[in-house]
Amino acid sequence: MSDERSKKTIDEQLDELRQQIHELAEKLEAAVGKEADALRPRLKAAQERLHELKHTSAEAWGDLKPGLEKAWDELYRSLNQAAARFKTRSKE
User: Fold this and answer.
1) CA of 46: how far to CAs of 73, 74, 80, in Å?
2) CA dist., res. 58 & res. 7, Å (int)
3) Where are the domains of the chain?
4) To 10 degrees, the CA torsion angle through 71, 75, 76, 77?
């Protein structure tokens, strides 16, 4: 194989790899966006519960605290699950 032909083959392979990397980056961006979109309502719920607690009496704290704890647990669990999915993907 001539040097010119092997350079062309390498260029073609590099172009193909560049395209694959670009496609992978687009897929990862889309996946990250979906994960973030799924977490936003849980974050909002936790923020709303905290806001309620800040503007309530000490007596109502006991009634509202379980809702905040639940919202916090759901947000924390979802965030950890999303992070774990990306850690798993990066090792593949």
Assistant:
1) 9, 9, 16
2) 75
3) 3-91
4) 100
Q: Please write the tens of the pLDDT for every residue from 58-85.
A: 777 777 778 878 888 888 888 888 888 7
Give the residue carrying structure tokens 């977490």: 39
Using the Cα atoms of residue 15, residue 21, residue 25 and residue 26 in order, give the sign of their dihedral.
Answer: positive
pTM: 0.55
Phi, psi of 2, rounded to the nearest 5 degrees: -75, 160
- What phi, psi does 56 have (nearest 5°)? -130, 165
CA distances from 90 to 3, 27, 29 (A): 37, 13, 13
Question: Rounded to the nearest 5 degrees, what angle is found at the Cα of 43, between the Cα atoms of 29 and 35?
Answer: 20
Q: Which two tokens stand for residue 6?
A: 């092997």
DSSP one-letter code for 56? S
